[in-house]
Write a structure and sequence with these properties.
This protein is mainly alpha-helical. Helix content is about 75%, strand content about 0%. It is globular and about 50 Å long.
Length: about 290
């Protein structure tokens, strides 16, 4: 359980790529306390997400690159136990530092993430269902979970447009980006018999699909910022997207010429650029509003 291999498979730095959802929840929070913010961040990004990563790695047993780990070492039973330990710690700390609602949502997220890779369910074998479930829980569900943690409130108190709409936007954003994270794993997924959405779409089909959904994301976010805030924030959001769009376009041209360009390195760069610009934007939104 304490082996270097097990800790590597937790892929804790990979949580950076999922940080925009937390920061969006922080930006729209009205009753946040520094203590609740720090606990929510630590529990979700240092315990819950790594537990999910480790558990999925244990059952996937990837031999080639995975998100956040270019050369994954062989997995062992210790990884399975370490992932469960992180899950348990997340739930206990969520209950002790925030509230019961937050702890239950942590439990639900953990169960769903396990269903994605566990052989008895293996949502990863279901291209549409797996894509929908992953986008819903990493987007809408997680934003609500983060908001409840940050504001130490109940589920009943958050069913308001100013909270629900950002949750929906997060899911659309995840549905747009998720197939792109699978594009370099077609061979590995095929070896296991997994039929991800990206594998079903094909390499160029994944680019076309992501571009279309991402266009929808941009329109929806722009309408949201104009409706709930102002045009200036909408323009700032579109400017924040520009580096990721530019890289995506450059990568598409390279991949159109050679499918070999649909690789781990380009995928991680796109993830890093988009996460960094969105993180910066939502921090600006938190400060400005």
């Amino acid at each position: 359980m304490l082996s270097r291999s097990s800790w590597l498979h937790l892929r804790i730095p990979f949580s950076y790529f999922l940080l925009p959802v937390f920061l969006f929840a922080l930006a729209i929070s009205s009753d946040a306390s520094v203590k609740a913010e720090l606990w929510t961040f630590a529990i979700i990004h240092l315990l819950l997400y790594p537990a999910s990563n480790g558990y999925n790695s244990y059952f996937d047993k990837d031999e080639k690159s995975i998100g956040g780990l270019k050369n994954p070492p062989p997995v062992n039973k210790g990884l399975y136990h370490l992932a469960l330990l992180f899950d348990i710690l997340a739930i206990i700390l969520g209950l002790l530092t925030i509230n019961l609602t937050f702890a239950v949502m942590l439990l639900i997220y953990g169960i769903v993430s396990k269903a994605y890779s566990h052989p008895d369910v293996r949502l990863k074998k279901m291209p549409i269902v797996g894509w929908l479930v992953a986008g819903f829980f990493q987007g809408f569900f997680t934003l609500l979970m983060c908001y409840i943690g940050i504001n130490n409130c109940t589920l009943q108190s958050i069913w308001r447009p100013e909270i629900v709409v950002p949750g929906i936007l997060c899911s659309i954003m995840l549905w747009a980006s998720y197939p792109m994270t699978q594009i370099y794993q077609h061979e590995e997924d095929g070896r296991r018999g997994d039929e991800t959405l990206s594998r079903k779409l094909g390499i160029l089909g994944t680019f076309y699909f992501v571009a279309a959904i991402f266009g929808l994301v941009s329109v929806c976010f722009t309408l949201y910022f104009v409706t709930f805030y102002n045009w200036q924030l909408a323009i700032a959001y579109l400017l924040a997207l520009f580096p990721a769009v530019a890289f995506f376009s450059h990568w598409f041209i390279k991949t159109y010429r050679s499918r070999e360009a649909a690789d781990y390195g380009h995928t991680m760069w796109l993830n890093f650029i988009s996460a960094t610009t969105l993180n910066a934007f939502f921090l600006f939104m938190t400060w400005a509003f």
